[in-house]
Specification:
- One of its GO terms (molecular function) is 6-carboxytetrahydropterin synthase activity.
- This protein is an alpha+beta fold and about 280 residues long.
- About 30% of the residues lie in helices and about 30% in strands.
- The protein folds into two domains: about 140 residues, Tetrahydropterin Synthase, Chain A (2-Layer Sandwich), CATH 3.30.479; about 130 residues, 6-pyruvoyl tetrahydropterin synthase/QueD (Tetrahydropterin Synthase, Chain A, 2-Layer Sandwich).
- Strands 1, 2, 3, 4, 5, 6, 7, 8, 9 and 10 form a ten-stranded mixed sheet that branches.
- Strand 9 and strand 10 form a beta hairpin.
- Helix 2 crosses helix 5.
């Protein structure tokens, strides 16, 4: 029987510091760069978990949502309104990065959730609206993915070089307007890897941000895709082609040892396009 999945969200507030008490001030600054701080800062974290199983025909449910909520509440209780670095033993030796927080919550939830009818298949944590991490247990029990979200403003005209003017107008309608139109594009770039034991990160975030600034923002932000970029001088700047172009620009530039996992482009709130490579 096919599996059904249930997604459930929760929130908690906490502080954390990119600072290991066992290291010297100089060692911490070398390890965590501009984020190194003994005192730290805080976030409203958002958690989304997915459990999956087969339908119980008697109840009409995969699992009782109350049981999921209770297990998640118990898993999050040690983190709520705490300073993770100094009050949660796990983070005394494991930096409280988003990646390690995902790993902690996943382990805690699996311990608390004992219903054999369903299993945890994915867990996602947002630290901020532009930074999140997740584990997909259907793919791996160890790999963690990190998603960086950004947006840029650009114009484009949908006009395929291989079609006549009349054919372009028939296919693309008002989007074939000779002067183009514009969007606030949203982009999600997901990289995957295993957290470094010292930093707790799968990628140097400063280095990743530099790549995204160079390869996405500098290339597309406040540009006319047809006229201001080399990518679309000879091809149609659909969001499908834009997604593939961003993938090609990023694929070999992600700071090692992380690797590019997925690119998502949001053209509007109703149109999303994604690519995960070959």
């Amino acid at each position: 029987m096919a599996q059904l999945a249930l997604r459930r969200k929760a929130m908690f507030s906490a502080a954390h510091a990119y600072w290991l008490p066992a290291l010297s001030d100089e060692e911490n600054r070398a390890l965590f760069g501009k984020w190194a701080s003994k005192w730290g800062h805080g976030h409203n974290y958002e958690v989304e978990l997915t459990v999956a199983g087969t339908l119980d025909e008697r109840s009409g449910m995969v699992v009782n949502i109350t049981d999921v909520d209770k297990a998640l509440k118990r898993a999050l209780r040690p983190l709520r309104d705490k300073h993770l670095t100094y009050e949660v033993p796990y983070f005394a030796q494991n930096p409280p990065t988003t990646e390690n927080i995902v790993r902690y919550i996943a382990t805690a939830f699996r311990t608390e959730f004992t219903d054999p009818a369903a299993t945890l298949t994915k867990l996602l944590v947002w630290e901020t609206p532009t930074l999140s991490a997740f584990m997909d247990f259907q793919e791996s029990d160890t790999m963690i993915a990190l998603t960086r979200t950004l947006d840029f403003a650009a114009a484009h005209r949908l006009h395929a070089p291989g079609l006549s003017d009349s054919e372009n107008l028939a296919v693309f309608g008002k989007c074939n307007n000779p002067h183009g139109h514009g969007h606030n594009y949203g982009v999600e770039v997901t990289v995957i890897g295993e957290p470094d034991p010292k930093t707790g990160m799968i990628v140097d975030l400063i280095a990743l941000d530099r790549v995204l600034e160079t390869e996405i923002m500098a290339r597309y932000d406040h540009k006319h895709l047809n006229d201001d970029t080399d990518d679309f001088r000879e091809s149609n700047p659909t969001s499908e082609n834009l997604t593939l172009a961003i993938w090609r620009h990023l694929e070999n530039k992600i700071p090692a040892p992380a690797r590019l996992h997925k690119v998502v482009v949001r053209e509007t709130d109703r149109n999303y396009f994604e690519y995960t490579g070959n």
